[in-house]
Each structure stands twice: as C-alpha cells, then as structure tokens.
Write a structure and sequence with these properties.
Blueprint: H1 7-37, H2 42-70, H3 76-83, H4 86-113, H5 126-142, H6 149-176, H7 197-205, H8 207-215, H9 230-253, H10 264-272, H11 275-309, H12 323-343, H13 347-379, H14 383-413, H15 415-446, E1 461-466, H16 472-483, E2 488-494, H17 498-511, E3 516-520, H18 529-541, E4 546-555, H19 560-565, H20 572-577, E5 583-591, H21 593-597
Parallel strand pairs: 1-2, 1-4, 2-3, 4-5
Helix pairs in contact: 1-6, 1-7, 1-8, 1-9, 1-11, 1-13, 2-7, 2-8, 2-9, 2-14, 3-4, 3-13, 4-5, 4-11, 4-12, 4-13, 4-15, 5-11, 5-12, 6-9, 6-10, 6-11, 7-14, 8-13, 13-14, 13-15, 14-15
Amino acid sequence: MTATRTPGDYRNLRVAATAGLALLLLVQTPQSIIQAGGGASLDREYGASLLIGATVLLAVALGYRLLTRMVPRTADHQLVARYISEPFSVVAAAAKLMSYALIVAIAAGFAVRSLSPLIDLGSLDLPFVQSIAIVVLAVPTLLEWQPGPRTLIATIAPAAASIGVIIVGGLIIELASGLKTLPEAGAIDSPVGVTWLLGGGVLGACLPAAVLGLMTERSFGEETSRRIEPRSLLTVMIPTILGIAALLYLSDVVSLPPSTKAPSVIALAEVFFPDAVVAIIAVSFSLAGLGIALAAYCQLILLLRLLATDGILPRHVAAADAHGSRRAVFGVIALTCAVAVYLIASPLGGSTMVVTIMFVGFLLTMVALLARARKLRRTSTDLRERQNASRSTRTALVLGLFVLSILAISTFVQPVFTVAGLTILAIPSVALLALRRGMGKIGATLAASDLSAGRSLPTRVHAIVLVEKLDRPTLQAISYVRATRPSTMTGLVVDVDPQVTEALTRDWMAAELPVELRILGTPRGAARRPVIEHVRSLRRASARDIVIIYAPRVVSPSATWQRFFVRHSTPALLSELKLEPGVIVAEVPYQIEDVEEQ
C-alpha cells in the first residue's frame, strides 16, 4: 500500500514526472519531425519545423505565464467552468486525463521498440505487446503501490546519460572523420497521411508546447498555489529543444530514414557505437520508457484526486481511503491506454493526438481568459485591473488564434489522427458529463425544499430479529435490540425445515427469552416472501409506524482462515427489505474472535 506522503514527496514526484516527460520529448519529437519530413534536408523542413515548434512553445509559455499572474490559484478547468460553462470545463479536464493516457501509450511503445537491437521485432505483434506492457504497468497503481521519486529518477537517469553520450559522441565523430550514412535497409513503410512536409514537421515539433500544459499545474497534495511559474519550466524545456536540434542535425547528417523499426536515437547509436554499447543503450532506453509510463500513471492518479477535489469527479474519490472508486476510474483509463496503442500507428500519429487534445484544452482556457477580461472591463472600477484586463484580452486573443491555426494544420495534414484524438477526448468528456448530469438530478430530487417536511416522529417502532438458530450471534443481537427499547420486539423464523424449526422452538423456550418467537411460512416453503409480507402487514396497520430488521452477522477482522468461512455478501432478503418504505435494515456484527476468548 502507498505510504502517507508529505507535500515534499508530492513535489519530488512531480519533478520526477517532469524529467520523464522531458526525456520522452527528446526521443519522440525528433522521430516525429523526421517521419513528417520524409528525409528532407535540415536547411529546409527540419530547421523550419523546429523553429516554428520553438515559437509555439514560447507562445504557450507566455499564455501560462499570463494565467499564473492573473489566476495563480485557479486551474484551467476551473477557469473554464467559471467563465464559459460547466460542460466545457469537463472537456478541459478530460484533455489532461487523456493526454496522460497517450503519454503512457507512447512511453510503453518506446520501451518495447527500444529493444530492437536485442529482439527481432518483426516477429512480434507490437501493438499487442505494448498493450500487455501498459496493463502490467498499471498493476502497481491498482494495488495502491506506487514507486517513489528516487526510483523513477533511477530508471530515467541512465537513458538521459545515454542521449548525452549519443549527441556528444556523434558530434565528435562527425567533426573528426565524418559520419557514415545509415543503410536504407532499415526503413519500413513511408509515413501515412502526410501531404505537407512542413505542416507535418510542425505538428511533431509542437509536442513540447503541448506537453508543457501537463507541467504547469502542481500535483494533488502540494500546499501552495496551483500554477507553476513557466520560467522554471523553460529551464527544462530549452535544453530539451537544444537536444532535439542536435539529434535532428545528426539524423540529417546520416540521412536517417523517415521511419525505422527502432526509435531514431537507437538508430543513431547503431551508427556511432559498437553492438555491445548499443545493447546497453537499448536496455537503458527500455527501462526509461517503463519509468516514464509509471511516472505518468502516478501523476494520473493524483490528477484524479485533484479533479475530485474540484468537483469534476465525485468528491469521495479524493479521500485517501477511497481506493475502490479510484481503482475503477483508473482501470478504465488504463484500458483506454491499451486501446490507444492500436490508434498510434506512428510516432507522428501519437504526437498529433497529444497536440490536438492539449491544444483544445489550451484554446478553451484562452477563451475563458477572454471572457474573464471582458467581465472585468465591464464591471471593475479599479484602473490597474482594467488595464491588465485589456492586455490579457489582446494576448489571449492572439494566442487563441495561434493555437487554432495549429489545430487547422493538424486537421489538414493528419485528419485521421486528429479525429482519433478528438474521439479519445470526447469519450471521457461524454462519460463525465453524463455522470455530472445524473448526480445533479439526484441532488435536485433529494434537495429539501420544505425544511419542516419529513420531521414527524414515528408512532411506534417494531423491532424484528431474523433468527436461523439460537447461537451466540443471535443471543447478542437480541440483547442489543432489547437495549434500544422498541415498541414491539419479535424473533422471526421462516419454517423451511420443520426439524430445525422444532429444535429452535425448544431452545427458545429453554432460554426463557422475554421475546416472542414468530414462525412464518410453511415447511419447505419460500424463505423471503413470508418475511416481506409480514413486514408489509405491520406497515398497513399504521402508516406512521416503522419496522427495523436486525440481522446477526458473523465477522472476522483478523483471522484469515476464519474470514474465508464467513458470509461476505448481503443476503437477498435484506436487499429486498431495503426497498420497502418505512423499513430500516440493520446488521448486528459478531466478531468470531469472541469465541476463542471465552
């Protein structure tokens, strides 16, 4: 089970997850641009794509910096709910959930494909293997065990060092003696759906800007403002962009094919180093892919608790002991990750889907910021506040149009993956909206419109103890019920087996209990119907009377072997009685350890 974490633990976990995302960007972004560029030269599509991607990154960072200044304690979905509508806030929240799901799918795919120098991937059903890896990686979280920040960093650090070795080693070799060209035999099918090389490259290069949105809010459990200053994030993202540029340069020098069986960094390692070194690098990358997926799962479960606190999910999901509810939601998302593998047919496809989903959320946030600024300009009497609102209006409008143009490019260049991303975003959005709608209807139905209604006391209280045999649990239940001083009290048995009923009657008379034993039904008759009809007859006699059904129940809180033999489910009779008006069902627990103590 997960130990109780301190705010510092949550912060360290977020830092580890950020490091994992940065590493994933280092390996995913160059491969997406290379695939989109179709082998174009660095001076053309590669360089232009990376430049546009860096510009988009700075623009998105500017947008989040504006949000940090204006609404430091308000999350994106909260801002959308306040200034647009509740349904759109659900979409903004679902965007982050599904982006983490896609990150898990991409990381699992990277972990499997990195083993290409050691395993013949052509003989494997890669999507199936990746799906199995995603499900297996979800098991620790389902069991409420999650790796600590140090464990995650330990899985990521060797791969980060390997990328540094590849970049430095490749540049040294290129300066010293030139690099050999990667043979064309490593290529597989050409990229699918790319009709505009520069447009496809831009989509791949926009992945860092999209992932930046996952880094800008603090995790559940951190006792500080919700938003993180983008300047601190750029200290991570700028070196990442430089690393991407270096990998692109080396890929262009060796004429790396647009699509290879292995990740592009593995293909570069195979050009620069001997097989033994490549094998070590491949293992480090595979381990890092697993670590990134685990870190994304950790952030995903914290995001679920955060959304529950904000009211997007039922609030009880945020409780520390609400393990079952979180497992159910997390299990559905994990299965979505496993299915998403079959939709991510290429690195560019995965990048396009993440960019589409996150930019939809960012666009909604900019629209909400516009609505907020418009409201302040209309209602505020503070001059400085009105001036800030005017500046934020211009900035949000420009950034919104900027992001909208990227979404238009995505629709034109990669329509299949764009639609797939929107579909993945729509499924949880519709589910959450249906959940909120149902909860809203129930809440409206249960709302007390008349505070004086339903407060009259019942005339009499009829207590009924369900009896099967006169054992210790039954005797304890009778004693407890007598202590409540009901108006009437009856022991109730259904005559299913005449011999058992006769033995129970003798024991009851011998015990001289001051409680009436009432026998219902006929020998070998129905067990539930007589009890229900008897309860209804009591209610018909006086509608203001209530009936309390007491059922003895044996429990074993510690002894495993004893717990195996006691009943765990609720009897069907009690389930039916709960639906009867004016009837209360209560279970009287009897700890089986009491037998051993006496």
